[in-house]
Amino acid sequence: MGKKRKQREAEKVESETKKGEDAAPERPKRTLLGWKEKPQDDENTVSPSFRNKEKVLVTCSRRINFRYRHLMLNMVSLLPHCKKDNKVESKEIKGATLNELVELRNCSSCLFFECRKHKDLYLWMAKCPNGPSVKFLVNAVHTMEELKLTGNHLRGSRPLLTFSTNFDNNAHWKLLKEMIIQIFGTPKGHQKSKPYHDHVFVFSIVDDHIWFRNYQISVPHNESDKVSRGSLEKMTLVEVGPRFCLNPIKIFGGSFGGPTLYENPFYVSPNQIRALERKPKVNTFAKKVKAKTRRKMHELSNPLEPDEFADMWKE
Amino acid sequence: MGISDREVSLSDEDELQEDQVNEDYESESESELEDGDVKLSEPSKDSVYDTEGLLDKLGDISWPQNLPWIDKLTVDIDQAQEVDVNDDLARELAFYTQALEGTRQAFEKLQKMEVPFLRPPDYYAEMVKSDSHMEKVKGRLLAEKRKIEEAEERKKAREAKKLAKEVQAQKQKERAKQKKEEIEVVKKWRKQRQQSGFSDKGNDLPLDFEDGKSFERSSKKRPGVSPGDRSGGKAWQGGKKGKMKKRDFRDSKFGFGGKKGMKKQNTAETTNDFRDSNKGGASGNKKRKR
Q: Start and end of every Brix domain (chain A) (predicted)?
């Protein structure tokens, strides 16, 4: 609550210091040549003081797999507003060190790729000073280097973000959608961003997982400037990659920690799955031993009659 | 409920099982998602869902409500029907249609705002995949296309060969038939002439085997052979072929049977007699490298 008040106050202060864009009439600015009228603001933007200054810190843990490292590098190339940092030691994942790192690099959110046991990739998406953070389990990773993903697009062009409507069904999906918009959307007017929109991100919820796809928008070349009805029909999408599937595990109130706001009831950790798969194999030995002792008991309790012909071939 | 689940999911271990069975383990059904992700059939009872907390945080981090759309560039698309996760094609199709629909709507909005959104063909800038990578992609696509085409060609060639065989067989049959017919016709004509006593007046049946083709040369090209030549052409000149010569020589030498070793082989006359041997060529051990 207090935070919200502070935010509003900060905005007010900012808007007062900003020149010439307030809705309330101010005194005309005094210049050497006389009084200069403020330029009329006929747009109806409410918060002109808001600028999207999102910066994402992208890091990974040590002992990350090659495939996940390439995924991380793909993300770095997709987000021009990100900063890549060195690998983070495993001890630093717990505790406040990650938060400090993000503050140090002056970033407002973080994408942290944590790889455990060289097999499982967990993705942390966090809004950094106080914001919520989410831990995902990443499946079905296909990086951009796969030759079957043939599309290509400008590096740094602003993507179009498409969401399926089931993001609006529940509170936790809404929160995730907002975080995704802020982290994956390139700020307008960012220095490294390029002008045209030639790729589109797809986030959709299927089976309680978030599926990510990245497509290049390709339109036949002869009419790229003037777009008529016809060329919109001829538009095709070619997949650029990467591809992954996110399974939300927990949503925390703080950044990389804090009170748990949401826990996925359907989530089973990959360790448990592996343990389950190994269980039947473990039991075969126990079964064998038991079967042996059972056989012995059975033999003892029902002794065989002495064989008449046992001595026949004895020399 | 817990016990029945145990029976169902761990049925092959029944009375021998003595491990502690955890809540999670027994309530899992084996509906596999991809890559070994298993879903709980009944959600575990103790999962946290703090709706107010979530909405609170949402309010904290949200951008101002009436931010112009151009800053966010988001489109919401309705998923028409439930997509089965395990059906790859349907799933990807659903994503594709979502993206397509989204881009159309976005482009309409952008068009209204008169913002250029399509990349002109002469705009060269750094792309997200390097040129060398795109070369590899192109190479792979071309290789695939070539493989398909080759397979098609091979199939067509096989079919064509089959057809060609049939056609050839038919043609041969026809030719044989024609030949027979012509011979028959000539024979008949001769008989007629015989019967009518070789008289040349008033033949009823003109020579109908002559249908104007008798003086036509056959279309087969046989250069170097004059029309009336009956010698058989170049192939038959110079006597017999090499193998026939060998056969003749051997016949003359070894005659018509008799004991193998009784005759002298290496005599003064036969030392320089090389008609028999395979002249040079692939004589000797073929396996030895030359």
A: 54-257
Q: For chain A, give the longest Cα–Cα distance.
A: 136
Q: Is A160 in Cβ contact with B73 (below 8 Å)?
A: yes
Task: Please report whether residue A125 resides in a domain.
Answer: yes
Ranges of beta strands (E only) in chain A are 29-31, 34-36, 56-60, 82-84, 109-116, 120-127, 133-142, 160-164, 199-206, 209-218, 236-239, 243-254, 257-263
The CATH number linked to A199 is 3.40.50.10480
> CA nearest A136: which of A244, A237, A3?
A244
Type of residue at B143? A
Q: Does A22 map to a domain? A: no
Domain-located, residue A21: no
Q: How many domains does chain A have?
A: 1
Question: How far is the CA of A222 from the CAs of A198, A227, B54, B105, B246, in angstroms?
Answer: 16, 10, 49, 22, 77
Chain B hits for A215, CB-CB cut-off 8 Å, are 96, 99
ipTM of the complex: 0.74
- Average pLDDT across each block of 10 residues of chain B; the chain has 290 residues. List them in order: 42 38 36 43 68 87 84 82 83 90 88 82 87 94 96 95 93 95 93 79 56 58 68 65 78 69 77 67 58
Q: Contact at 8 Å (CB) between A278 and A272? A: no
Q: Residue A237's domain spans which residues?
A: 56-222+230-272
Flag whether A11 is in a domain. no
**Stretch 81-120 of chain B: residues touching chain A, C-beta under 8 Å:** 83, 85, 91, 94-96, 98-104, 106-108, 110-111, 116-120
CB-CB under 8 Å, A161 with B74: yes
**Of how many residues is chain B composed?**
290
